[in-house]
Amino acid sequence: MLDTCKTQLLGLYYLATLPQRRHAASRRCLQSQVPMIVLFYHRVADKHPNGWTISTTRFRAQIEWLRHRFEIVSLETAQQRIEMGANDRPTVCITFDDGYADNCQMAIPWLLAEKIPFTYFVSTLYMQLGKPFPHDVARGRPLPPNTIEQLRDMATAGVEIGAHTRSHADLGAVHDKRKLADEIIGSREDLEDVLGQAVQYFAFPYGMPKNLSTAAFRLAYEASFRGVCSAYGGYNGPAGDSFHLRRIHGYPEWSRFCNWLTLDPRKLSIGDLYNPGDYRNPKEL
Fold first, then answer.
1. Which residues are 47's β-sheet partners?
2. Where are the domains of the chain?
3. CATH architecture designation of domain 2-272
4. Which run of H or of E encompasses 1?
5. pLDDT along the chain (285 residues), means of 10
């Protein structure tokens, strides 16, 4: 009942502030200051839903909604616009985390058929072992991870495959440099070994401010990753930090999804919640 009331209130807030948002959006377009939005999903499936699953029907409806209102681009294109300090159109990127085999039933084939770019982040240990993620086992519903063959097929089809640690570790709690390197660089090496191509992006598991660290940012930067992704929300403004891409969850609820995608004025500063520090400085921490 409480969740229903919250959803209804959010819907009313969204409708009430829509004229203000449209006016602000027009102004940003004229000034070439439209933020880049990066979405993340985990699992697209109709069986065994959980908090990180979206139905196939809702996923397709969201992507169709985006296609009519945004330019859907790769992470690299979004970064280029951030680095140029200018973007004059609504822009969105699509990403996936973890690596669920269910995504190969509908989501991946459909995105490829529609020529929609996306980046697919994988925790490599579960791909290698063919074992379910511990967070699914803990909930009593083990779900199959992607196989090596599925990832190879994706890479061959042109999908950008990214690293997501080896063990889906909380890197904010990892202080040993060797362990950090094993999770971040090791996951890239695992993928490059099986795919035969360079892996340029890394996404933090969990991705909240407490799950990030300056040491992890610095290690990824010095290892020549093209960029890293968090997951605590926020928009990526032109002339911002193009290496750190802030992401928003692809919420199944329409009111939450539309509220984020139309730049809720209350959330414009969320991207500043976490400051990774001077990770480009080569000095020892």
1. none
2. 2-272
3. Alpha-Beta Barrel (3.20)
4. none
5. 78 91 96 97 96 97 98 98 96 98 98 98 97 94 97 98 98 97 98 97 98 97 98 94 97 94 92 90 62
